[in-house]
Write a structure and sequence with these properties.
14% strand; 304 residues; alpha/beta; 10-stranded mixed beta sheet
Amino acid sequence: MTVRTRAVSGRARTGRTRVAVLGTGVMGAPVARNLLRAGFDVTVWNRTRRKAEALTGQGAKVAGSPAGAAATAEYLITMLTDGAAVESAMTGADGALAALAPDAVWIQMSTVGVAATRCLAELADGGAAFVDAPVCGSSGPADRGELLVLASGDPGLRPRVQPLFDVLGRRTLWFGRVGDGSRFKIVLNNWLAVLVEGMAETVCLADALRLDPALVLDTLAESPLGSAYATAKGRAMIERDFAPGFPLRHAGKDAALALSAADHRELELPLTEALLKRWDEAMSAGHAEDDVASAVTVAGQGRP
């Protein structure tokens, strides 16, 4: 594994390199904005066109299809919901893959899991150079260009794609085996899921015992037990502030991907399995698009 920290000059070495961004949702939109601010020539596509059109004021061009976005791109970034959405955008009559130039690079940044990443890499074989590069960070770090990029692929592609990663992230971890970026992301997101559920249950337990949950968070923040992410989510839980930084449906999807990856290795993840059942209840109750902090709405069920 190679660690690359963003160089100060990274944002200046852009010129008018042509980049297509497929997917302009919670994460794709800030990715496109940061590339535009850095001077890249950006064409965007989104299944819901109005989300792509929201970027025209910052200089983005809007394509009517994935193929239209890819036609002139030197780099194509996919930042979509899941593996099926990525495959749909890349294949078929309007798919991006057939429209890419032979020397173009496909940077796959969606969180799709181990099996789907393998399938997408095989799909790209012979049609485009492929870099697996999911990211860690929610909408806030994405807006600030402070994501952690988990990249894997042909080492020869690193000098070509690193200037883009320097714009989007504060740090890049490079792995040697294609797909290890996605494997690493699943491991990190499994930890995140367990952390969030633990905080949700802690907040509910403090409340049930008639203690001040905010005091619990303050105490954790001042001790080695604390985690900045967990305490931030804990405060959101207490305030019932579920503005989506990382939507619960995405966190639930990632937890399911972790379970799938573990199952293929005959490994049990009982905590992840248990929390996903609760999170499914929260999503069914209308919290799918809310932040993962909304897991607290079901964490205390059955308690006084």
